[in-house]
């Protein structure tokens, strides 16, 4: 793998994105705001406080994490799959000095970039709404890049193994949605049967929510173990992602 | 003349299916070489191995003297590939497609911009530079794919069914471009199942059937030996018509 060639792939995705960003950026920005409004204000009128924090403030850091996650997963499931299969962009790229490992690395870099970008936009939005107490929240941004890699790897593993594009429904319904709902974004998991928080420990979003929530309230030490978890799992999954994509693309 | 591509005992399996079955061939510098045969004969697989898209199962393939499994990037930086399917970037314009592609070869923007204009002139698409890919006709897409394959000024050009699905006018237009590249000294390898294309363009053809090369030679020599046109040659050698 050569970083420079991976960067060429990243540049290609950026070139296409900058042509189309108006539509996709707006949509990705609307959905989190809807969650904040509907749940934060609507449900918040009844729930009032969780752990002494107003409900809308409780969920805001989690929405940063989930927006960042979905940006990476959409990009590296549907986006990667379309480039690989329908547009045959991968075939075109592989006819140049770029090799398959460069290509996979470039796609992951791009997924992580989008993940960081979309998370950062939500950080700005919730900060403007006055939902963040500490400027330490800025430290979430580099963590979003690492978790963005992890979410991209998971998504590309799905893209490498699905028989067709419709199969991503299973990925989202059985994996992403439960992870989103039971990651501690909307309620603390310790009120539920312990098995749920045990399962949640093995999902990346749970750890990312811990990180964004700690940083949003200005406390650093609680997040360290979660960051280590994200980092280690991203490194462990890397080789699987490369192996499965290689197998899918090069027969 | 020096050999640009050599294959010895080239075999490729897809699972249990043997797509290419121990073939040998040699292609010289400056030559216009064709792989001829019906769909499924293994032509595209051979092309994909030559341009390092996938490794052979066994046997050895060398391009510019380098092993395709060991130096893929070095080989690919010196060849151009015109694929069978349209894999242009549908969200980019004609010109942007060329510029983005040039970047994969590390061609700086200033240089690539000049090359792109020259190539658009060569394929007679200068006025289409800012047009979206979706708005191009099939013939124009093929010409743009050819222009894109030339962005790195390749010594070897690989063309997989370059005129498949084109109307006669567009086909002749592509043939004309290929002949002019040949006269500039570029080595060309194409696959086709059009007899006329092979007869008109290729100095030598390898006739393929079920993963094997049945015979190699110049179209005129083969037609002299077996009689009739290349279609008849194919029928005589394999016992069935080509367009089956």
Structure explained in plain terms:
The complex is a heterodimer of chains A (251) and B (244). Chain A is mainly α and 251 residues long. Chain A has helices at residues 3-47, 55-86, 89-94, 100-128, 140-161, 168-181, 194-201, 204-217, 224-249, and strands at 49-50, 53-54. A two-stranded antiparallel ribbon of chain A has the order 1-2. Chain A is globular. The model of chain A has no long low-confidence stretch (mean pLDDT 94). Helices cover 37% and strands 26% of the residues of chain B. Chain B has helices at 43-50, 72-76, 94-104, 109-122, 138-149, 168-183, 195-201, 219-226, 230-238; strands at 3-14, 17-28, 32-36, 58-63, 66-67, 79-82, 156-160, 187-192, 204-209, 212-217. In chain B, α3 crosses α4 (109-122) and α8 (219-226) crosses α9 (230-238). The model of chain B has no long low-confidence stretch (mean pLDDT 93). Classes of the chains: A mainly alpha (251), B alpha/beta (244).
Task: Outline the fold blueprint.
The complex is a heterodimer of chains A (251) and B (244).
Chain A: H1 3-47, E1 49-50, E2 53-54, H2 55-86, H3 89-94, H4 100-128, H5 140-161, H6 168-181, H7 194-201, H8 204-217, H9 224-249
Antiparallel strand pairs in A: 1-2
Helix pairs in contact in A: 1-2, 1-4, 2-4, 2-5, 2-8, 4-5, 4-9, 5-8, 5-9, 8-9
Chain B: E1 3-14, E2 17-28, E3 32-36, H1 43-50, E4 58-63, E5 66-67, H2 72-76, E6 79-82, H3 94-104, H4 109-122, H5 138-149, E7 156-160, H6 168-183, E8 187-192, H7 195-201, E9 204-209, E10 212-217, H8 219-226, H9 230-238
Parallel strand pairs in B: 3-8, 3-9, 6-7, 7-8
Antiparallel strand pairs in B: 1-2, 1-4, 4-5, 9-10
């Amino acid at each position: 793998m050569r970083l420079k060639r991976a960067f060429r792939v990243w540049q290609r995705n950026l070139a296409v994105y900058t042509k189309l960003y108006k539509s996709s950026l707006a949509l990705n920005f609307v959905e989190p705001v809807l969650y904040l409004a509907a749940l934060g204000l609507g449900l918040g009128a009844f729930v009032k406080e969780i752990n002494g924090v107003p409900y809308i403030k409780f969920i805001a850091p989690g929405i940063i994490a989930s927006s960042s996650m979905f940006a990476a997963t959409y990009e590296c499931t549907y986006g990667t799959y379309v480039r690989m299969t329908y547009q045959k962009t991968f075939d075109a790229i592989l006819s140049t000095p770029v090799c398959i490992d460069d290509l996979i690395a470039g796609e992951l870099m791009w997924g992580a970039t989008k993940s960081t970008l979309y998370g950062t936009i939500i950080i700005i939005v919730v900060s403007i709404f006055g939902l963040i107490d500490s400027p330490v929240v800025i430290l979430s941004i580099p963590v979003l890049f690492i978790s963005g890699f992890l979410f991209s790897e998971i998504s590309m593993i799905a893209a490498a193994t699905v028989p067709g594009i419709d199969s991503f429904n299973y990925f989202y319904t059985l994996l992403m949605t439960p992870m989103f709902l039971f990651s501690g974004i909307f309620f603390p998991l310790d009120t539920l049967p312990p098995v749920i928080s045990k399962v949640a420990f093995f999902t990346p979003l749970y750890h990312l929510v811990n990180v964004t929530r700690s940083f949003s309230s200005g406390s650093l030490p609680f997040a360290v173990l979660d960051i280590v978890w994200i980092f280690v799992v991203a490194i462990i999954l890397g080789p699987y992602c490369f192996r499965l994509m290689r197998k899918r693309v090069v027969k | 003349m020096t050999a640009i591509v050599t294959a010895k005992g080239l075999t490729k399996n897809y699972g249990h299916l043997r797509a290419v079955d121990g073939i040998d061939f040699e292609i010289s510098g400056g030559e216009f070489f064709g792989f001829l045969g019906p769909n499924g004969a293994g032509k595209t697989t051979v092309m994909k191995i030559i341009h390092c898209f996938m490794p052979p199962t066994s046997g050895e393939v060398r391009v510019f003297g380098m092993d395709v499994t060991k130096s893929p990037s070095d080989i690919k930086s010196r060849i151009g590939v015109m694929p069978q399917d349209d894999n242009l970037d549908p969200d980019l314009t004609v010109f942007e497609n060329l510029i983005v592609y040039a970047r994969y070869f590390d061609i700086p923007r200033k240089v690539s911009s000049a090359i792109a204009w020259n190539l658009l002139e060569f394929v007679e698409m200068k006025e289409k530079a800012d047009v979206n890919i979706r708005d191009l006709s099939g013939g124009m897409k093929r010409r743009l794919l050819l222009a894109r394959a030339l962005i790195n000024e390749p010594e070897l050009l690989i063309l997989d069914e370059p005129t498949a699905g084109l109307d006669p006018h567009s086909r002749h237009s592509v043939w004309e471009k290929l002949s002019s590249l040949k006269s500039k000294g570029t080595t060309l390898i194409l696959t086709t199942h059009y007899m006329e294309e092979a007869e008109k363009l290729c100095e030598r053809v390898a006739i393929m059937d079920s993963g094997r090369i049945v015979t190699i030679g110049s179209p005129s020599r083969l037609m002299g030996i077996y009689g009739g046109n290349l279609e008849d040659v194919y029928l005589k050698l394999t016992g069935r018509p080509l367009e089956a």
